[in-house]
Amino acid sequence: MAARPEGPGSGGGATGRGPVPPEALPKAWRPLLARPALAKLLGDPLGGAALTEMARLLPTRLALHSLRVFLLADAWAQAEGTRFDRPGLLAAVAFHDTGLVGWAPLGRGGFPRRSAESLDRFLAERKVDDARRAALTRAVREHMRPFPPRNAGPEARLLHFGVWLDVTGRGERRLPGERRMVTAPAPTPLFAVTFFARVAACGLRRARPGPASTAR
């Protein structure tokens, strides 16, 4: 996917719920929101709306994990000089665990597929184009695989890297000290225990890209 604009105004025609002011987001998030990579997205239409939905949908532990994932992914992108869709990645990160919330049967693809479907609806409401939606929903669907596919785009690789580094420490040598830096102000003890349970559940459900509704 060609890199999308990284600054404000990159969200397309927004519809539905608008973003809440940054000061209305949960207090527990503030140490992470103050970091430059997130702070400069607070005024972005797509990024701000994604944070608003994350506050509405996710409990604190999952939300803090998601914010750390974005910061780690962004740090790796900066270290590697990777161009990527920054507001889009924030939207993908915000929705990547939403499929864990609720009691509806997960079915084939497990919670990543359900998360991707929620993201797809969110992006469609904001008139995000099909190619961009496909790249971002694919990133969410595939983030629980042990390794990203070889043909994965930058958003998929970055989301995957951030998730696994935050929870397991894998990839820490590429960003020495970064994981500790983002975890210290917003820790979620024992998060890895539930993470590995989700990995096992995804394996049993043969988690993989779902049908065309989220794979445009």
What coarse outline follows from CA principal-axis ratios? globular
The proportion of residues in beta strands is: under 5%
| Overall radius of gyration | 16 Å
State the separation between the terminal residues, measured CA to CA.
13 Å
Broad structural category: mainly alpha
What's the total helix number? 10
Q: Compute the average pLDDT.
A: 84
Oligomer: single chain
Helical residue percent?
40-55%
Order of helices and strands: HHHHHHHHHH
What is the makeup of the main sheet? Answer: none
How is this fold's topology laid out?
Blueprint: H1 30-33, H2 36-39, H3 45-57, H4 60-80, H5 86-95, H6 110-125, H7 130-141, H8 154-168, H9 178-183, H10 191-204
Helix pairs in contact: 3-5, 4-5, 4-8, 5-7, 6-7, 7-8
What do you see in this structure?
There is one protein chain. Helix 3 (45-57) packs parallel to helix 5 (86-95), helix 6 packs antiparallel against helix 7 and helix 7 runs parallel beside helix 8. The protein has 10 helices and no strands. It is an all-alpha fold and 216 residues long. It starts with 29 loop residues before the first helix and ends in a 12-residue tail after the last helix.
Question: Would you summarize the structure shown here?
Answer:
This protein starts with 29 loop residues before the first helix and ends in a 12-residue tail after the last helix. It has ten helices and no strands.
Provide the descriptors you would attach to this structure in a database record.
216 residues, 10 helices, disordered C terminus, disordered N terminus
